[in-house]
Amino acid sequence: MSDSVLHVPRDQLIETVSRLRSEGYVSAMDVTAVDYLEHPVRGDLSDEITAERFELVVTLISYEARTRIRLRVQVPADDPVVPTLFDLYPGTEALEREVADMFGIIFEGHPDPTRILMPPDWQGHPLRKDFSVGCIPVQFKATR
Amino acid sequence: MNSSPVISDAVVSPGDVSRDITSDVASDAAVRCREQSAVLRIGEDDGERLEAEASANDTTMIMNMGPQHPSTHGVLRLMLEMEGETVLRSKPVIGYLHTGMEKTAETLTYLQGPTNVTRMDYAAPLFGELAFSLATEALLGLDLPPRAIWIRMLMCELNRISSHLLFQATNGMDIGAVSMMIYGWREREETLRLLETITGLRMNHNYIRPGGVAADLPDGWRDEVLGLIDKLPARLEEFDALLTGQPIYRERLQGVGVINSAECLALGVTGPILRSTGYAWDLRRDMPYLAYEKLDFDVVVGTYGDCFDRYAIRLNEIRESIRIVAQILDQMPAGDYRVQDKKVTPPPRVRIDESMEALIHHFKIFTEGFKVPAGEVYAAVESPRGELGCYMVSDGSGVPYRMHIRGPSFVNLQTLPHLMRGGMIADAVAVISSVDPIMGEVDR
């Protein structure tokens, strides 16, 4: 359970992940994100890293070494764009679509940047902290 | 048609069988998965439009399967590009069961959390509870008493049996072996009855909770469990007689929906699908949690990565789980079934009647919940479908700041276009069935 954690700047993500993949992290287990809107101060970030609103969390696994590594990428709210990992791990396609759907983070170069869980015409991104529960008018196509 | 192994050879790994996939091979597979373009990448509403635009001599058509189709295991919708009866590209469309459970989790305390995650993979609810509890306990830094750990293993293995029995039932039904559905369901119901005796509920147990389990094993549990594991092996033999050797059944499954190890790694696939390709990876053995390192069991692997191997693996995993349960019966330690940490554990029921402080303590734990130190953690368990991970972020309050479940069904579903490509539409049903997706976990 003590996975190693790596903080990666956004522009070095692809480079870092390709290096890790050549070191034996052959599979991407998980891609998710956290919206730190209400909890901006995080004790586990070092001083060199500027905390941003969104954090992309990528979990890779090495079957050879039997370890997982977790990459944490800071993504600013005014420019929520990260490069896609699809070219390295095709299995991240659905996971990235989910993050894009739920957080509004755009994956540059993703082959199918459509909504995956919410309806295609849904407004907003449900897992953002400023998207409240229960205050959204129900959206039905038929009533329009 | 491949010549697939008979069940007795769909074997059990002696030790480290092939885990020699280098990253080069994996990256070739990555390229292949991308270039092969098995995935139909069009919008959910575009099927009709494309269909209308297609010229008269166009030989392909877009067909829609589901979301209300008996063979799609709930509400899975598939957009299939067909040429005659052959499937070319396809796209699974999901989200019909999306109820925002990860959002809901941000409003529930850590004690209420398991009631939420247990409804994700409703065929194997205890694994969701386990991943959630392990993540919470990692943040809390709790060490569980041995009995709690062993009860958790017992319950999880019983749940794995019931989940795989459900697979046997639905797989048989999808292929057309309808009598199998009745038998699989009957055996599963007996397993669920046992779970009900112990947890009080057939499904959605809310039994494994942060700090241990909800209640100790009831009187007479040992005889009930023994009764079940005595009964099951003979029933599994019947399954073998009914399905494994049956020519029609084998014709329908052998060589259908083939995938190899490198493609599985590229797609992030885990569980029986990965093991069906001969890749021996099981978190219980390779990255042990709970006390699995103290148990003797085999990891079942296949050879051809086809639907038949996935069927055989699940059938044999039931046998392995029975073996594990028998060992747990012998080694079940005595002691507490939950951690004696006043911050996390409510007082015993009898104390509430005699002590005001105990009443207040009880009330506070179940209303406010307990506070969990700030931090983030990823905990993973081997569910019947693969790696079930729980990523949890705490901001130091009584509710998770973010709770994410990495559902194996969600990731495994991406193999569907690759498994179906070039096959017949009738085989598509066999493929969906062999991936064994649970839509509650896919959509969350």
List the helices and strands and how they pair.
The complex is a heterodimer of chains A (144) and B (444).
Chain A: E1 4-8, H1 13-22, E2 27-35, E3 54-62, E4 67-75, E5 81-83, H2 92-103, E6 106-108
Parallel strand pairs in A: 1-4, 5-6
Antiparallel strand pairs in A: 2-3, 3-4
Chain B: H1 23-35, H2 46-53, E1 60-65, E2 77-83, E3 86-93, H3 101-105, H4 113-117, H5 125-140, H6 146-175, H7 178-199, E4 208-209, E5 212-213, H8 221-244, H9 247-253, H10 261-267, H11 272-275, H12 283-286, H13 307-331, H14 349-354, H15 356-367, E6 375-383, E7 386-394, E8 402-406, H16 408-412, H17 416-420, H18 425-435, H19 439-443
Antiparallel strand pairs in B: 1-2, 2-3, 4-5, 6-7, 7-8
Can you put this structure into words, describing what you see?
The complex is a heterodimer of chains A (144) and B (444). With 144 residues, chain A is an alpha/beta fold. Chain A has helices spanning 13-22, 92-103; strands at 4-8, 27-35, 54-62, 67-75, 81-83, 106-108. Helices cover 15% and strands 26% of the residues of chain A. A 4-stranded mixed β-sheet of chain A has the order 1-4-3-2. The N and C termini of chain A lie far apart (49 Å). The mean pLDDT of chain A is 84. Chain B has 444 residues and is mostly helical. In chain B, the strands form 3 sheets. In chain B, strands 1-2-3 form a 3-stranded antiparallel β-sheet. The longest helix of chain B has 30 residues, at 146-175. Residues 1-17 of chain B have low confidence and may be disordered. Classes of the chains: A alpha/beta (144), B mainly alpha (444). At the A-B interface, strand 2 and helix 2 of A face helix 1, helix 3, helix 10, strand 6 and strand 7 of B.
